[in-house]
């Protein structure tokens, strides 16, 4: 049955127009994703009008190509200039940028590419073979389930807090507070807006992202004298060996599955999936202490989580007609423009179109590797540009990117102010990653908790209403116990080391 | 400043911020609907949760720094390789120059336009960072903002405010 469907789909798919559409789509997506501030949503929305005159399959494949390219493209500036191109790329900064600073930009870019392509491919397979099952599971997620999942996701903060869990918590609290600026989700009353219209609308994610990661480096450069550093010959160091890939394979597979599950749940997106995958990889890795300092497995895990979402967000779209995020909402629009209505009927009436799209989606992973490999040769040279030229150029890129989000200079101001906060955090050794995680997950956690309690008239037992919430809350408690034990052990070890180092006195 | 003093200061700063939030920012900045009792449905609930975490972490940070005899880990600045750290006095001077340049960039950007401000910004920032190859700086300053302007306006369809660039490129295209 499925083979027949594939045969029909392949017949419809196999034309130069369709192949070219994916080829161009992935390239356009990578370019947009690699420019900070230009999101995948923006790229898909911009390309949408070009699809009006194309055949349905060609048009939809062009958009899907752009989407997939943009998700991968976000990792390129994250690794090279510490400025994630897309929200999902934010997690890649944590290990990608330190690797670039160690002269391993090419290696980090290659690992990001391979893990992205693998995760994307696995996600596509999940879309093709498990769409029905995953969609049914995803539909069981209501506010209490979301809340439980977000609680578990927030335990990553401990993993990315470095040596001081307390500083990580303080950083996360600041992120939660900044995320609460804007209108209250239930009452519609302003929070921390102080009468300013721009603050009433809330603070956008992109200026925070750029301000928190790129700006502190730019400001910090004023406190340094530039020194020409001869980097280790990159060419010999750029390839990812089979051993290195194999070492990260478990994290890639785990991250892909996390991406698939979270991607199928409408409204979550790539950034939380990347952080959850990163946290899971860190917990399971032998090199856990090296995470955040330039660990290749960290890059692989975050990119796998981020890209694992891509195919899965199409699951609720194709099987139920429910868009999983803003990009798939735009793609839903494209379906409708071409007279197609995603959902169960699409599988009954236009099965050849569905399978032609599946064929194209599978090919997009191959084109991603192709464009990525070609691009890495050029991109990895960016790491060799001296800071005295690179940082002013990055600043200009950041300003244009922050402005482009809403065409509003206020976002540039927010970026500068968050940059100053990020610089203070850098000097105080306060990790920025918990801030970002809390900023992303905080509103989801709050909204879902309050919605759940609204549903139950304030009865907290709704948070334990089924096996999904119990599973995630139990995982959260278990993680907290493990974190406490690990921190106690670390503290004891440090105290013992200090005692041993202390001079002997009579 | 010793490491211990620095860590105590960070803890106290976090505490001070939490107290400022509790006594001023939350009561003034988060209005409470009249009919609502304090509780989990209140708009203040989440900011209070976050502030409590901030307060507790500030308290523990201060206590840990206060009772710790010596700092186990050096600062990130000391660990970093690459560029050489300036002496404190020069670093502060560098920061002042940096803040003036960034403020100036924003000011010019909102009044003159993004392309012109970015071109001037690249030259001045590059010079402040110690770049002396003027030809390279000027080339980057001219090419990058113009390339970004063209990409954003003509490819991405995002209007970039810059009357001068708009006039020039309208005349060309």
TrEMBL record, chain A:
Q: Which domain of life is it from?
A: Bacteria
Every copy of the DUF112 domain together lies at 19-436
InterPro entries according to UniProt: DUF112_TM (IPR002823)
Transmembrane segments annotated in the record for this chain? 12-35, 41-67, 121-140, 173-193, 199-219, 257-281, 326-347, 354-376, 388-405, 412-442, 462-485
Q: Name one Pfam family in it.
A: TctA
Keywords, A to Z, come to:
Membrane, Transmembrane, Transmembrane helix
PANTHER family named in the record: TRICARBOXYLIC TRANSPORT PROTEIN (PTHR35342:SF5)
Protein name per Swiss-Prot or TrEMBL = C4-dicarboxylate ABC transporter permease
UniProtKB/TrEMBL annotation, chain B:
Q: Record's superkingdom?
A: Bacteria
Xref: InterPro entries: DUF1468
Q: Which residue intervals define the domain DUF1468 in the entry?
A: 10-161
Glycosyltransferase keyword on record: no
Q: Where are the transmembrane segments?
A: 45-67, 88-106, 112-129, 136-160
Pfam families the UniProt entry points to: TctB
Could you list this entry's UniProt keywords, alphabetically sorted: Membrane, Transmembrane, Transmembrane helix
The protein here is known as Tripartite tricarboxylate transporter TctB family protein
Species of provenance: Billgrantia aerodenitrificans
